[in-house]
Amino acid sequence: MSKICQITGKKAQNGNNVSHSKRRTKRTFEVNLFAKKFYYVEQDCWISLRISAAGLRNINKLGLDAALKNAVAKGYCDWKNIKVIG
How far lies 67's CA from each of 9, 19, 32, 37, in Å? Predict the structure, then answer.
């Protein structure tokens, strides 16, 4: 599974390591992703999401249902890609 946040759509970016002598080598800036379980009240079930720290703050601000609807509307995730646990 690729390292993409299911709420914000954030993914790895490319950049350079710059040494003291200003020599540049390619590197990637990874997203702060982690797997988190949420209780989805509207469907009365637990779901598992791969979200970033910014996605978690977004869920705390808007609520889980609104954040999921925004993510689906923007194309960051799909309802069939959301893992339902029990």
Answer: 12, 40, 18, 15
pTM: 0.84
Residues 27-46: pLDDT tens digits?
Answer: 999 999 999 999 999 999 99
Q: Which residues contact 23 (CB under 8 A, 6 or more apart)?
A: none
Mapping DSSP onto H, E and C, the string for 1-12 reads CCCECCCCCCEC
CA distances from 33 to 9, 21, 45, 54 (A): 11, 32, 22, 9
Cβ atoms of 1 and 48 within 8 Å: the answer is: no
The H or E element containing residue 50 is strand 45-52
